[in-house]
Every structure is written in structure tokens, then in C-alpha cells.
Specification:
The complex is a heterodimer of chains A (305) and B (226). Chain A is an alpha+beta fold and 305 residues long. Chain A has 11 helices and 4 strands, in the order ααβαβααβαβααααα. Chain A has 2 domains: 190 residues, no CATH class; 100 residues, Alpha-Beta Plaits, CATH 3.30.70. Chain A starts with a helix and ends with a helix. Chain B is built from 7 helices and 10 strands. Classes of the chains: A alpha+beta (305), B alpha/beta (226).
Chain lengths: 305, 226
């Protein structure tokens, strides 16, 4: 028999049983949709976590205060040296005048403070370099670099030591979030996959006698397996499409709240829309692979007649 | 040619289904296997399509040892044998028409052949009007006739029927037996397991009598004597 005809028959038979077992199909699709929903949520959660970590990291910096009267070109030289370090992400130079302006702006409601500043006559603030590291655990080595002998005459203080504890703690929190996030994602994904797999297994369990009969009537294994694979793939496709259809408005509604609550500045909805086809593709891939593979494995047991 | 060579099926010492059965069936023969319930008729038939494995001995179909065929290749053997199971074993989710068509699809019949033959075969067993019904909507006798139609449809070399008239009234019974004999006349080997004395005594064909797993009689024009 030509292969095309076999494929046609197998497909037709798969579609037929899909429709005739409407309730079973619906139940299986629901469970698979939940699985894909969980996995997509984990993906989005990961995006939020990443941006949260990024935000936290972005808020941490160390400041180098230069002694009063340090010439600008000396400071620029230090800046260049620091920028050479691979650990350094960015360096921001704040002149004493800029620092003063910021200070005045920040304390404009405190006339006493401003008065005493005016009484001082000169600008007491020092030139500063604000340094950000690529990773939070790299601040120590940057601070170490700045404590070298050659910089001693120029630098008043580096505020790392005061902040070291906080930075260290943040660093371990970030590491913790990453690790536990990965483990949690893995566990939840595994649970979701197992639930979907077992649902399909149960669906096929109800057809075990039929599979036996087909074998005894002389159907080849692929002729028996084919319709179940077709149904499995169909479950996956419909589940993926359903999930996306549900998720799109949900993310749209939840996204502003998340951004507001976590102050991350990440627009989850924008991310979702931007990566829509990639996400849908992933969901389809997960759905189809899960449906087909589960069916394949589940049918195999009953082919041993 | 079908050959059972010293076949035994022993579940345990209290349950011996077959013991040292040797039997040859030539192409085109009509053989009835008779015996009381529990004599081993069904087990013997199941051996031929490798649904059951013998504890000892070998079963050949055209000099191929049936039980040496790997699982994945068994389908080729089974397509050569049309089986009417004692418990029908219809596909519950398919209509009578689809059940018969399935056997033909499996045997690689073309769509035209299926469209042409399935209604014919259903008519032959008197179920033309029930083609669109699911097994659950059919009576025991109707299911049995669908099972027979399925076994016939793809024109196998051998038809193996395990109590195919067990659920039929006398009139239907004789229709089915006449049908089997007609198919046999056209060259198909027929193996019929039954405990219906009247059938056996009327058709005057070869009878193999089983008693507690042993062949106790094998006569070319046998009668039902136990």
C-alpha cells in the first residue's frame, strides 16, 4: 500500500477517535494546557526574576572619594585605570560642583543645613567616581585595586568597606534566587510533564483492548500507533493554542501590577508581545513533543500481543 | 499447511490446557475442532495466531514456526488468517462497517475495494441495515456476525472460527455454517471450533475431538462423539 494512503488512513482514524472520544480529548487537552501554562509561566517568571536581579545589581555601586583639590587629570587617569578592569561595568564621574548641586537639591527643604553650608563658604564635597561592577561579588576585587599604594595620595576613601556586608548579602540573595529559581522551575516543569504524560497514558489505557484486537487482526504496529500519535499531536497543538489565548489577556492585565509592585521597569506584556512567536513556537513544540512521545510510550506496552 | 507438532500448554499441574497435540491441516480443508468446554479448543486456535505461546512443541504455518516470528512481524502472519473470536472482539469505537473496513485497511486493500466489498460482506451475513451501528447497539448474534464479516472481508487463506454460532438462533446458525462451507468450497481453509453436535453431525467433514487437552479422535468424516 502506498505510504501516502497509509498516512491518510492513520490520520483519518486519529481524527475520528479524537472527535468520538470528545470528553476524553477535552480532559486530556485541559491537563496538557495546564502543563504548558505552567511552563510558560515559569519562563515569564524567569524574565521577571532576571530583571529584578538586574535592577538590584544596578543599584549597587561603590564610590571613590578623592581628596579635596585633586587635579581633574589625576582623577581622569584613575578613571581610565578603573575602566580597564574587566569586572567594571560603568564608571560615573561626579565633580564637586555637581555633587554640591545634587546635595542642595536633595536638601532644599532643610534651610538649616543649607545655611550652615553657605556659612562654610567653600564646597566641602569631594570629587567622586561611582563604579558599578558586572557581578556583585566583584566589588571586593575592585575595591582592592583602588587600595593600591599608588592611589593612596589621591583617594580619601572608598566606601566599599562600609557597604561590604550589604553588598555581600545582596550578592548571596541574588545567587539564592537564581539557584532556587532554577530548581523550582525544574521541579515544577517535571511535575507538569509527568501529569500530562500520565493523563495521556490513562487515555490510552482505556483503549488497551482495542489495541490488542488490532494486533490480532493483523494491523502493523505503526498502523495501530499512528492514530494515537495523531491524536497526541492534536492534543498538544490545541493545548498550546488554548494556553496562548488565555495567557495573552492575563499577562496584559497582570503586567502593569507586577511592574508597579516590583519597580522593575520591565514590561512583561511588551516582552510577551515582542517574543510572541517564539513563545508560541516553544509551547507548540512542548505540546507536540509531549503529546506524541507520551502516546508513543503509552501505546508500546499494549502492542505486546 | 498448518502443523501442530507435539504442542502442550501447561499453566500449572492443575491447569493443563493442551498436552502433546499433533495435528496437520491441509490447505483447503474444513476441520471442526470439537470438545467440551475446557477441552482446549480455544487454546489450540490461539496458538495458531500466536496469541498464546505453547509451553512445549511447535506450531507451523507453511513451514514457518509461528512462535519464532518476532512481535513486530506477527501482523503479516495474522493477516493471512481471518479469526472469529469467541468473545467477538470488535472495535468498540467503530461502526460495523468500520470494523469490517479495518481488517481490509490492514490488509492493504484499496479504497475502491473497501467501498465495494464491505457492504457486500455485511449483506452476506445479513447485517446490511446495521452497517452504521456501533457494537454496543448490536445484539450478541449481530456482533458475532460482524466478527465473521470482518474475518471474511480481506479474503484470508485461512478462516478460524471459535464458536461462531454460539449466540445465534438455529436459522442464523445454518446460514453461517453454509457460508463457511461455501467459502471453503472456494479454496479457503476453515477451522471451526464448536460444541454444537447437530452441526458436526450434519456437515460430514473432518472432526478432531479434544478431551482434557488431548486429541482423542481425528476422523475424515467425523461425528460428534464424546
Amino acid at each position: 500500500m502506498p505510504l501516502v494512503e497509509t498516512i491518510k488512513r492513520v490520520t483519518r482514524s486519529g481524527l475520528q477517535s479524537f472527535v468520538r472520544n470528545g470528553w476524553l480529548s477535552t480532559a486530556t487537552i485541559s491537563v496538557m494546557a495546564l502543563t504548558i501554562f505552567v511552563m510558560t509561566s515559569l519562563l515569564l517568571l524567569n524574565v521577571i526574576t532576571q530583571s529584578l536581579i538586574f535592577n538590584l545589581q544596578d543599584r549597587i555601586d561603590i564610590s571613590v572619594y578623592f581628596k579635596q583639590g585633586t587635579p581633574e587629570d589625576e582623577i581622569a587617569k584613575v578613571r581610565r585605570d578603573v575602566e580597564q578592569l574587566t569586572e567594571v561595568k560603568s564608571v560615573q564621574y561626579v565633580t564637586p560642583d555637581e555633587a554640591l548641586a545634587v546635595f542642595k537639591e536633595r536638601h532644599k527643604d532643610n534651610p538649616l543645613l543649607l545655611e550652615s553650608l553657605a556659612e562654610l563658604g567653600e564646597n566641602p564635597l569631594e570629587a567622586t567616581l561611582n563604579i558599578k561592577a558586572r557581578e556583585t561579588d566583584q566589588f571586593a576585587s575592585i575595591a582592592g585595586f583602588l587600595e593600591r599604594e599608588m592611589y593612596k595620595p589621591l583617594i580619601d576613601k572608598v566606601n566599599y568597606s562600609q557597604n561590604a556586608e550589604v553588598i555581600g548579602r545582596l550578592s548571596s540573595i541574588i545567587g539564592g534566587i537564581r539557584r532556587s529559581g532554577a530548581i523550582l522551575s525544574f521541579v515544577l516543569a517535571a511535575v507538569a510533564v509527568l501529569v500530562a504524560f500520565n493523563t495521556i497514558r490513562l487515555a490510552i489505557y482505556t483503549a488497551r483492548d482495542e489495541i490488542g484486537v488490532m494486533r490480532l487482526v493483523g494491523a502493523s504496529n505503526w498502523f495501530i500507533r499512528g492514530p494515537f500519535l495523531v491524536a497526541g499531536v492534536l492534543y498538544g497543538i490545541i493545548a498550546a493554542l488554548t494556553t496562548t489565548a488565555v495567557l495573552l489577556p492575563v499577562v496584559g492585565a497582570v503586567s502593569p501590577k507586577i511592574s508597579g509592585f516590583l519597580l522593575t521597569g520591565t514590561n512583561l506584556f511588551a516582552y510577551f508581545k515582542q517574543n510572541f512567536w517564539v513563545i508560541l513556537g516553544l509551547e507548540l513544540a512542548v505540546g507536540i513533543a509531549l503529546g506524541a512521545l507520551s502516546s508513543y510510550i503509552a501505546v508500546r506496552r499494549y502492542l505486546k500481543v | 499447511m498448518i502443523k501442530f507438532d507435539n504442542v502442550s500448554k501447561i499453566y500449572n499441574e492443575h491447569a493443563v490446557a493442551l498436552e502433546g497435540v499433533s495435528l496437520e491441516i491441509q490447505p483447503g480443508e474444513f476441520v471442526s475442532i470439537v470438545g467440551q468446554s475446557g477441552a482446549g479448543k480455544s487454546t489450540l486456535l490461539k496458538m495458531l495466531i500466536a496469541e498464546e505461546k505453547p509451553s512445549a512443541g511447535r506450531v507451523f504455518l507453511d513451514s514457518i514456526d509461528v512462535h519464532q516470528i518476532p512481535l513486530a512481524k506477527l501482523s503479516i502472519l495474522r493477516r493471512r488468517i481471518g479469526t472469529v473470536f469467541q468473545d467477538f472482539r470488535l472495535l468498540a469505537e467503530r461502526t460495523a462497517h468500520e470494523n469490517v473496513a479495518f481488517a481490509m485497511e490492514v490488509a492493504a486493500a484499496t479504497n475502491e475495494e473497501i467501498e465495494r466489498d464491505v457492504p457486500k460482506v455485511l449483506e452476506l451475513v445479513g447485517l446490511k441495515d446495521k452497517a452504521g451501528n456501533f457494537p454496543r447497539e448490536l445484539s450478541g448474534g449481530e456482533k458475532q456476525r460482524v466478527a465473521l464479516a470482518r474475518a471474511l472481508a480481506h479474503r484470508p487463506d485461512i478462516i478460524m472460527a471459535d464458536e461462531p454460532t454460539g449466540n445465534l438462533d438455529p436459522l442464523n446458525t445454518w446460514d453461517i455454517i453454509r457460508l463457511l462451507m461455501k467459502i471453503n468450497d472456494l479454496g479457503t481453509t476453515v477451522i471451526l471450533a464448536t460444541h454444537d453436535r447437530e452441526i458436526i453431525n450434519t456437515i460430514e467433514r473432518r472432526v478432531v475431538s479434544l478431551d482434557r487437552g488431548r486429541v482423542v479422535r481425528d476422523e475424515a468424516r467425523g461425528r460428534y462423539i464424546l
